[in-house]
Write a structure and sequence with these properties.
The complex is a heterodimer. Helices cover 27% and strands 41% of the residues of chain A. Chain A contains four helices and nine strands, in the order ββββαββββαβαα. In chain A, the strands form two sheets. In chain A, strands 2-3-4-8-7-6-5 form a seven-stranded antiparallel sheet, sandwiched between helices. A two-stranded antiparallel ribbon of chain A has the order 1-9. In chain B, 36% of the residues lie in helices and 19% in strands. Classes of the chains: A alpha+beta, B alpha/beta.
Chain lengths: 176, 606
């Protein structure tokens, strides 16, 4: 039985993943893992690396590269495999980055294709805000009566005084 | 009718009057318990974002391997951003990235304790056991971090109504924790340093020369770390403050180490235009090329080296007043770089000299020669004295009251439950340094009462013995040996006594008190890492525990019908003691209570 796909959104990018576990989700990125593969999705407005420079920096090689409506590249060294996908939308570039072992190349390509087939763009931006990103919550004000409880002892004391005075006055009035 | 109206009027009047009456938090009023904890992460442990970019994702660190993080680089002055207009700020502590836990383990360990992250208001949670974190721009000089940390400390002190905070810092964060505690000792109850390279680490320097990505794995390549980080004063502050490199068997001075030669990463990043110039001048001989290149590239940034040495001059002599407790916990037993042996090696630039033009290796005929010049290489000398990243020497600080170790690497140790337990024991001791008089009086009173009970029981011991019958006597004989052992042990506790009381649920007055006897040592072997704990519930002994303990472990069952209830009901007292946990009831409980009562009264007076 096929695992049903789950939908996610990062900024404007909407995508579906099937059988992937969430590694981390916060406002800047979402990442997932599945059978030794790791996938990260984020929006970027910064300068991106040239894949050849990146390959050189890890003593690796650009295995393939494709440029069209989206940019795709596969980079490998002896230990690692990288799949770079860049999807432009409005003023941002959406980056899908998958890593794994070189032996997982076919699985990685299949998974990336599945993810890309599900991609669409929403007009409304949405990000996941992690708990730790939320602003520090300053203690709420207590309810008025919790903060200022009625001093019952004091109330009873004055009630007794008032009662005694009232009784005295009443007696005096009665005598008159 | 009039009187009822008067009464109603009176109540209506008294309610606003109550506005002037504010209920004091009795807990807060009594003593400044449970100083909040602020966690400061290490280098690369904070998320950095550019405030000048508008996008849903303006994250520069950790970012993504596809992104060029050059924006994180500084110019040679160690201050000016490499990209104009860059406005970088730290927004959070890195818990997990690229599938790898960074500080996730620390938060998970802490969340299992009574301390809660950013304790929210509910009961007294916010006021009591709350912990916070402090992200910072790790690229900058340590001194430049102090103002931001002070702002965070002040905010937390205000919101938690605390006079002081406890700073728990990992790795690079320890540098600012030390500096802050010495500058503002009145705001800091303690600093607990987790693998803090206070005296630097050769691997910090390595990131400036040979290349090192601080274990960032697939996230960023080693050359890219050098590209963005070789002008970060923060990294320089991680370099050792003592000679750590030798050449031909002779120690190099720090000046020579930092300022001489062209290092390997520099050599890899010399622009082609420089070789073009050399070619134009017809300089191709390796010696001559080396000389020319050294003029431009030799050593690290002079301005930052100067700043680093000035920083060290001030930083290394800092001491905290004794009121600030300093504790060090570090990883140990891992293969760690302790120094470097330095050699100058002939390096091939990889750029070909072809008729006055510089081209890359690809597509150029091999008969042309490349530029060769001398490069200074730093070869690691390793030993198992450290935590993989920092050598033992790096952790030392004269202000530290105690140094503890865990058998783990530099990053792993921060998330280790064992580290959290050691830290929490310290925190609990700290939180009760200022015991309030009411509690001490109560403890004394109960201890005295227990003492009287024990004396009375002792007088009727023989009668009780008869009552229990022959079976009891047989049992007693079996346990006699253990009782002697217990007596000896408690005598030992009494002699060593330094103690703390843990009010696990102090507000509800369901008093659980833990007496901690640090430095007791493993019984019979003197292992200084061991501690003994005597846990009292409402001033009755309910558990004796040896070894480390966390507050969440206080689950004790008592069996009133059992003379001695041990973990598996078959162990001798001594075995149970050595096996970490015993529960005590019946006669032994009473006697132990007596010992503890004696011990308490002898330490805090009648």
């Amino acid at each position: 039985m096929a695992t049903s796909a789950l939908g996610y959104q990062q900024g404007n990018l909407v995508f579906e993943l099937s059988g992937w576990n969430v590694s981390e989700q916060y406002s800047n990125s979402q990442s997932f893992f599945k059978n030794g593969l790791f996938l990260e999705v984020r929006a970027s407005a910064g300068k991106l690396v040239d894949v050849r420079d990146f390959a050189a920096s890890i003593n690796g090689k650009v295995e393939s590269e494709k440029n069209g409506t989206r940019y795709e590249a596969i980079i490998m060294n002896d230990d690692s495999l990288y799949l770079f996908v860049r999807l432009p939308y409005q003023d941002k570039m959406y980056l899908l980055t998958m890593t794994g072992k070189p032996s997982q190349l076919n699985a990685a390509k299949t998974e990336m294709k599945k993810a890309l087939d599900s991609v669409s763009f929403s007009a409304e931006e949405k990000v996941v805000v992690a708990d730790w990103e939320k602003e520090l919550k300053v203690p709420d004000e207590l309810a008025f009566l919790a903060k200022h409880p009625i001093p019952w002892l004091w109330v009873v004391f004055w009630l007794v005084i008032v009662f005694l005075v009232w009784r005295k006055i009443r007696k005096r009035k009665g005598k008159k | 009718m009039k009187q009822y109206l008067a009464l109603i009027l009176f109540i209506i009047l008294i309610v606003p009057v109550s506005a002037f009456y504010v209920k004091e938090d009795s807990y807060q009023a009594v003593a400044d318990y449970h100083s909040p904890i602020i966690f400061i992460p290490g280098v690369m442990g904070s998320i950095l974002e550019d405030d000048n970019r508008w996008t849903t994702s303006d994250e520069l660190w950790p970012g993504n391997p596809q992104e060029d993080r050059t924006e994180l680089a500084f110019k040679e002055d160690g201050k000016t951003p490499e990209i104009e207009g860059s406005l970088i700020k730290a927004t959070g502590v890195l818990r997990k990235t690229w599938g790898t836990a960074i500080y996730d383990g620390f938060y998970q360990s802490m969340d299992k304790t009574a301390y809660k992250f950013r304790g929210q208001y509910g009961d007294t949670g916010y006021l009591r056991q709350a912990y916070f974190d402090h992200a910072y721009d790790f690229r900058r000089a340590t001194e430049d971090q102090i103002a931001n940390l002070d702002k965070k400390v002040n905010d937390i002190r205000t919101n938690t109504h605390s006079k002081k905070v406890i700073l728990v810092a990992h790795s690079m964060g320890s540098l600012q924790a030390k500096m802050y505690a010495t500058k503002y000792p009145d705001k800091v109850r303690a600093v607990i340093l987790l693998s803090g390279p206070l005296n630097g680490a050769p691997r910090g320097f390595e990131s400036l020369t040979e290349g090192y990505n601080f274990g960032a794995g697939a996230l960023i390549s080693i050359p890219h770390v050098w590209e963005i980080g070789h002008n970060w004063p923060g990294i320089f502050h991680l370099s050792p403050n003592h000679p750590f490199a030798s050449m031909n068997g002779v120690d190099l001075s720090l000046d020579d180490t930092f300022l001489k030669g062209i290092n390997y990463q520099q050599a890899n990043h010399i622009p082609a235009s420089v070789f073009n110039e050399l070619a134009a001048k017809k300089i191709t001989d390796p010696e001559a090329v080396t000389k020319e290149l050294e003029k431009q590239f030799s050593g690290q940034s002079k301005a930052i080296v100067k700043e680093n040495f000035a920083f060290r001059k001030k930083f290394d002599v800092l001491q905290t007043p004794s009121a600030v407790r300093v504790e060090i916990i570090h990883g140990d037993g891992q293969l760690t770089t302790q120094s470097f042996t330095v050699t100058d090696e002939l390096y091939d630039s990889g750029r070909l000299y072809v008729s006055g033009q510089i081209e890359t290796v690809e597509g150029v005929f091999p008969q042309y020669s490349t530029f060769k010049f001398n490069v200074r290489r730093f070869k690691q000398v390793n030993s198992k004295d450290g935590d993989e990243t920092v050598h033992k020497k790096g952790f030392e600080w004269a202000s530290a009251q105690k140094v503890q170790t865990v058998n783990a690497g530099h990053m792993a140790m921060a998330g280790l439950p064992e580290t959290a337990e050691k830290m929490l024991v310290i925190v609990e001791e700290l939180n009760h340094d200022k015991r309030d008089k009411v509690w001490v009086d109560k403890i004394k009173s109960v201890a005295n009462s227990n003492l009287a009970n024990v004396k009375s029981r002792s007088q009727s011991a023989e009668a009780q013995s008869q009552e229990y019958g022959e079976a009891y006597k047989e049992e007693s004989k079996k346990e006699e040996k253990d009782e002697k052992f217990l007596a000896k042990l408690l005598k030992d506790i009494k002699g060593r006594g330094k103690y703390a009381f843990v009010d696990n649920q102090i507000v509800g007055r369901q008093n659980k008190i833990q007496i901690i006897v640090p430095g007791l040592g493993e019984y019979d072997s003197g292992n200084a890492d061991f501690k003994a704990f005597v846990v009292l519930d409402s001033y009755n002994v309910i558990e004796v525990n040896i070894g480390t303990i966390s507050p969440s472990d206080y689950t004790v069952t008592m069996d009133k019908d059992t003379f001695l209830a041990v973990v598996d009901h078959s162990m001798s007292l001594k075995d149970a003691w050595n096996a970490d946990k015993i529960a005590i009831s019946g006669g032994i409980k009473e006697r132990l209570m007596g010992f503890v009562a004696q011990w308490v009264t002898s330490h805090i007076g009648q």
